[in-house]
Amino acid sequence: MNTSKILDNQEFNNKSVLNHFIKEYSNKNGFNMVIKNSNSKAIYYICDYKSDNNIRCNFSIVAYHSNLLDNWKIKTKTDNNHNHNIDLDINNNTLSSQSFNKQNLIDNIILMYKNGFKPSFIEIKLKNNYPVFKNLISKKFIYDNIRNFKKREKSR
Ligand SMILES: [Zn+2]
């Protein structure tokens, strides 16, 4: 599977949500992205894999910041591949980018909730970030996911 296709054009309104997403996405798929450098316009992530003879993996991701929209957008190159095997998450393998986004949506709800954002604010931000899911995103959807998250935390 081309991992770039799923990552490309994902938008984030918050840098820590973006970093969290990239970390979680890469770890789920058996690799690890680290920030190579960053400035006010872009964040450059690279795969931290090194072969036995010290050859670095060239896989990289760039997130560009838009001042106008005040958000971050992921861009990857189409010829951007790992030089080692990665364990693609078995579930991700069969997911279309739409259903992947839905999980990402839920992850974002939980992360914003954990960062102290109110459900009404989360609703506005998500609708803004994921226009495709405008019909799915409702107060009920957000409350339900927060409730499920709390249940999972309790049963730990
Ligand atoms: Zn790699």
* Secondary-structure-derived class: alpha+beta
Quick one: biggest sheet? 5 strands, antiparallel
Give the N-terminus to C-terminus distance in angstroms: 33 Å
| Form type | globular
Helical amount among residues, as a percent range?
40-55%
Give a quick set of tags describing it.
6 helices; 44% helix; 5 strands; alpha+beta; 156 residues; five-stranded antiparallel beta sheet; binds zinc ion
Account of the protein in words:
The protein is α+β, with helices and mostly antiparallel strands and 156 residues long. The protein has 2 domains: 1-94; 95-156. The chain has 6 helices and 5 strands. The protein has a 5-stranded antiparallel β-sheet with strand order 1-5-4-3-2, covered by helices on one side. Strand 4 (60-66) and strand 5 (71-75) form a beta hairpin. Helix 4 packs across helix 6 (139-154). Residues 90-97 have low confidence and may be disordered. The structure holds zinc ion. Zinc ion binds next to loops.
Short description:
The chain is of the alpha+beta class and 156 residues long. Helix content is 44%, strand content 17%.
What is the strand and helix layout of this fold?
Layout: H1 3-7, E1 11-12, H2 15-28, E2 33-38, E3 42-47, E4 60-66, E5 71-75, H3 90-94, H4 97-114, H5 119-129, H6 139-154
Antiparallel strand pairs: 1-5, 2-3, 3-4, 4-5
Zinc ion is lined by residues 31, 47, 49, 57, 59, 82, 84.
